[in-house]
Amino acid sequence: MEKVMNCFKKRPDAVSRLICFPWAGGGSVHYARWGNILNSSIEVLAVKLPGRESRAKEPFFQNMQQIVDEVISVLLPVLKEKPFALFGHSFGAFTSFAVADALKRLHNIEPVHIFLSGASAPYSEIRIKAPKRSDLSDEDFLTWLTSNGGTPPELLAKPEVLKLFLPALKADLHVVENYRCSKPDKPFLSCPVTCFDGKDDVPHDLHAWKEMTSGDFSVRMFDGSHFYLKDSDNEKLLLDSITRHLETSDMDYL
């Protein structure tokens, strides 16, 4: 469990759990610290992928199925204990979707809420037509990252540090670019889905995510670009929103 999940604040008496998936090239610490911020009713588990942090010596995953298989094998016993929600930003939105899909199909388990941020649905036209970037040279890849705002600002300020992150960034982007799924014929979930995004980010087809659920669907936009959620004011608003949704979901679940 500790190998795959980072939990800063264990809360065995928490009413629900929030499972967070990293953005491309990202680690688990940003989300794990949410466990110190959210109230005691929510326990936060942040996914740690191979090739970074304490798993730096492990090879990167090559496809989405590997991520789904590992996360579910570790989390399944935990997810049966109490209500849980999923949160994913950018690359993490895709992994959240893939995990939710597999949990429902294979185990008939679904979250009480899914929070998806900074990404088009994987079956949307915008996503399908997006050009592949993971095979670019490092120089061209960095140019593209700089131009589209899809890199944490603190990394762009330190090019020598950014180069250390390039392998993980490219590996995750390779997973996303080769992940294919069809638009659902009918919703496979019944839980609410909430989408977040930065107003100045590149346009995303957020409303396409509605196809996955028969439950409530909402969109909330924040000031800022792709990494709007790293702004402290936005983070507070985001976590307040997640908390409100989860407290309502917990009541419905009970």
From TrEMBL:
EC number of the protein: 3.1.2.14
GO MF term set: fatty acyl-[ACP] hydrolase activity
Catalytic activity, reaction form: (9Z)-octadecenoyl-[ACP] + H2O = (9Z)-octadecenoate + holo-[ACP] + H(+)
The keyword Hydrolase belongs to this UniProt entry's keyword annotation: yes
Keywords tagged on the record: Fatty acid biosynthesis, Fatty acid metabolism, Hydrolase, Lipid biosynthesis, Lipid metabolism
Keyword hit for Hydrolase: yes
Residue ranges annotated for the Thioesterase domain, each copy included: 17-245
Top EC group: hydrolase
GO biological process: medium-chain fatty acid biosynthetic process
A Pfam family it matches: Thioesterase
Family: Belongs to the thioesterase family.
Protein name as it appears in the record: S-acyl fatty acid synthase thioesterase, medium chain
Protein's organism: Labrus bergylta (ballan wrasse)
